[in-house]
Amino acid sequence: MSSYLAQEVHLARRHEEILSQRSELLQQMETYLGDKKTKKTWQTQAADAAHKRNAALLNDIEAAEKKLQERVYLLPHPDTVKLETLYWASIKESLPKWEQFLLGRAEVPIGFKKMKTANQNVSYPEEDPQK
Prior knowledge:
Number of strands: 0
Shape: rod-shaped
Structural class: mainly alpha
Largest sheet: none
């Protein structure tokens, strides 16, 4: 009989150990699931924030693109830019020749005609009356 009693005591202790382990595992599982739920909530919030940020960036990019497209119409034609560049290059090149004249220290540079300031006789071709 004492062997049954000893076996029953042993089984009761084993049962208590199993219940204790079960309790620990349940607590760990609850903690894990709570952490997992918290992590999922955080990820959802982060995804929402990223979505809002991406939408704002997309709107900014579209606005910038629209401004650039509007500005393209405001830019002068490339031929005009080329002519303007050549014009300013020729001004810079001829400026030293004209500098003394513009300061009132010299006559018109050689190779340039003086313009008449008095009344100029301008003749226009006569129109053909038969037209």
